[in-house]
Each structure stands twice: as structure tokens, then as C-alpha cells.
Amino acid sequence: MFDINSLLNYLYNGQTISVCLAFILLYFIRDSKGAFFSLITAVFFLYGSLTQSLVYEYDIDFIYRYIFWSINDLIWMGCIAYFAIKDRLYLWQSIIGQLVVVLSPILQIFRLLDRHLWDLSYSDAIYKTTLPLINLAVVVICFLPLFLVLSSRIKSNKQLAN
Question: What is the pLDDT of residues 69-84, one digit of tens each?
């Protein structure tokens, strides 16, 4: 069903490990909302790494992979929006995540149209540089609550010392 080499390659680039690390750190400092955001993101990153080789194997024509990844991103956005409304994760983190990731489905559909409908190659450079940056930005968003908690603790310790 999935190729272990694909999973290892995805884990090697560090994004999935970083998101899982963010979840573990936020869990241990008892920031449940930040940890839940990181958990949802880690689940989607792991799902992506497990299904990547399967999608590539069955999508010989390079059509359905772009639709699959767009739907995956939209479902992730819907999940974090739903849980932000239910107050299970930070609203600001959900909004920032959605603003960053909304570019991904647009870029996926543009890539599909560029390759198959227009038969051009305008999207090559944009696609290969922007998607990794979007994923990196999501990883950074997972760590933002950790930085906020640590900075507030440092400020409170300084105020107690004075």
C-alpha cells in the first residue's frame, strides 16, 4: 500500500519530525491548544508521506495527484477551522495556518492547468519553490505557541526578579 522509502525520505527532510517534536514539546509544557494544532498537522503530514508513493504509482498521467493534494490541504484547513471554532486550538494559529496554506490548493490547481490544459511550463519554478516554503511555514506555525509560552515565562521571571 505504501512505500517505506517514501516515508523515510519524507521523514528525512525533517518537516514531519519537526511537527511531531512541536507536539511533544507543547504537550509537555501543557499547552493543549498548541499541541492539538501540532497533532492535527502531524497526522496530515504523516498521511501525506504514507500516501505519496501510492498516489504517484497510480497517477501515471500526472492529473489526480494535484487534485488529491488540493483536497488534502482543504480538509486540513477545514479541520483546523472547525477545532478553532470549538475552542480546541488557538484561533490566531488557525487563521495564520489557513492564510499560509490557502496558496497550496491554488498552486496545485494552477499546476494541473498549466501542465495539461495549457501545455505550458510556467508553474515549474513556482511549484518547486513555493510548496516547500508553505510546508516550512506550517512547521513554524506549529512552534509559535512554544515561543509565546517561553517568552511569557521569561518575562514573568524577569518581573519577579525585579
Answer: 999 999 999 999 999 9
